[in-house]
Amino acid sequence: QVQLVESGGGLVRPGGSLTLSCTASRFTLDSHAMGWFRQAPGKEREGVLCVSGSDGSTYYADSVKGRFTIARDNAKNTVFLQMHSLKPEDTAVYYCAADNRPYCLTTMGVREYDYWGQGTQVTVSS
Prior knowledge:
The chain is mainly beta. The protein has strands spanning 3-7, 10-12, 18-25, 33-39, 46-51, 58-60, 68-73, 78-83, 92-99, 115-116, 120-124. A hairpin with a 6-residue loop joins strand 5 and strand 6. It is globular, with a radius of gyration of 13 Å. The model has no long low-confidence stretch (mean pLDDT 94).
């Protein structure tokens, strides 16, 4: 059974940085597009970044461009979300997800992804 396990969430001050990890089991990252989503209270889940398994190309939502980076370590079967210059509006539960397609779709719809992690809370507050 495919499993995605996120870690690294927590409380951070505005302007701070945080790195989330997502470790996959029972499949290899280079066969799947890997995405990070987030869901704030009362809002729909939104896709923020994706990295393709086929060529490592990336897609970023406008809201995080220049502040968030996605990286992949195939040897560790782990995807990282590096977040900088965090804002209170970045507060959300962050989810890692895997798509059976090896490439990212810029639509980043929730239904496009086949496997999900349990989520990790990120709170940006002073």
